[in-house]
Design a protein that fits this description.
7-stranded parallel beta sheet, 261 residues, 9 helices, 14% strand, globular, 44% helix, Rossmann fold
Length: 261
């Protein structure tokens, strides 16, 4: 017991020598996850759908880490195969996978288009399953790995006008538990994070509406919207040795939003 106490150090949180795939990390919250890993010592591989990779490339290289990219559609299984192959060719291993890419199409339930439902289900849920399955085959050979799925406050609640988004984010919690049970004996831990309301450029206009902003803020026990840094420490922890005995859980990063009525 004493030896274990002596062995523990802040190195348990280091990602030096690790390789992380973060889907969709050339924009949005994915950039925060990727940059957190880079600052913790990992090299990055980023599958992306939109063209611009300049900002995240500069950020990662500015802290002395490597980054490689591959453009394509995560709902295309041929692309998923090419992504895994390209990462292995570039780095020779995959230690961390963050299933960050996702989206939403808003619409009223009674008139919601079938095509929109299928599109969001494919991106937010099916791609997580297929990407994880392929990456897990590599991690099983390595006898180690970390998979981090990205849920939402809507993994535990519901809102109007986003039927498939809410459904997929609930499903992410279940899928995380499935992976934990299926892969745990291969020393692969699967967990999820569920971000709440974060102050980002995407929702700047929403936050400018005092009625909406105050409605949300008043429900958050911490009394503020989240910042990107609030996510970054959590994903580093879940990707590191420090979380080796945490498996199958979803951590809400929402200031307490989902604990209130």
């Amino acid at each position: 017991m004493v030896e274990q106490l002596r062995e523990f150090s802040m190195d348990f949180f280091s990602l030096k020598g690790k390789v992380a795939i973060v889907t969709g990390a050339n924009q949005g919250l994915g950039m925060a996850y990727a940059m957190a890993f880079a600052k913790a010592g990992a090299d990055l591989f980023i599958p992306h759908f939109t063209d611009d990779i300049s900002e995240i490339k500069e950020l990662i290289e500015s802290v002395g880490r490597k980054v490689a990219f591959i453009k394509g559609d995560l709902t295309d299984n041929n692309y998923v195969d090419a992504m895994v192959e390209a990462c292995m060719k570039e780095y020779g291993r995959i230690d961390i996978l963050v299933n960050n890419a996702g989206g939403s199409i808003f619409g009223d339930f009674d008139t919601y288009p079938d095509e929109a439902w299928k599109k969001i289900i494919d991106l937010n849920l099916n791609s997580v399953y297929y990407v994880s399955k392929r990456v897990a085959s590599i991690m099983k050979k390595q006898k180690s790995g970390k998979i981090i799925n990205v849920g939402s406050a809507l993994s535990f609640t519901a809102d109007k006008r986003c039927p498939p988004y809410t459904s997929t984010k609930h499903a992410i919690v279940g899928l995380t538990r499935v992976f934990a049970n299926e892969l745990g004996d291969s020393n692969i831990q699967t967990n999820a994070i569920a971000p709440g309301f974060l102050a980002t450029e995407v929702n700047r206009e929403l936050r400018a509406d005092p009625a909406f902003y105050n409605k949300i803020t008043n429900r958050i026990p911490c009394g503020r919207w989240g910042e990107l840094q609030d996510l970054m420490g959590a994903v580093v922890f879940l990707a590191s040795r420090a979380s080796d005995y945490i498996n199958g859980w979803t951590i809400s990063i929402d200031g307490g939003f989902t604990t209130t009525l």
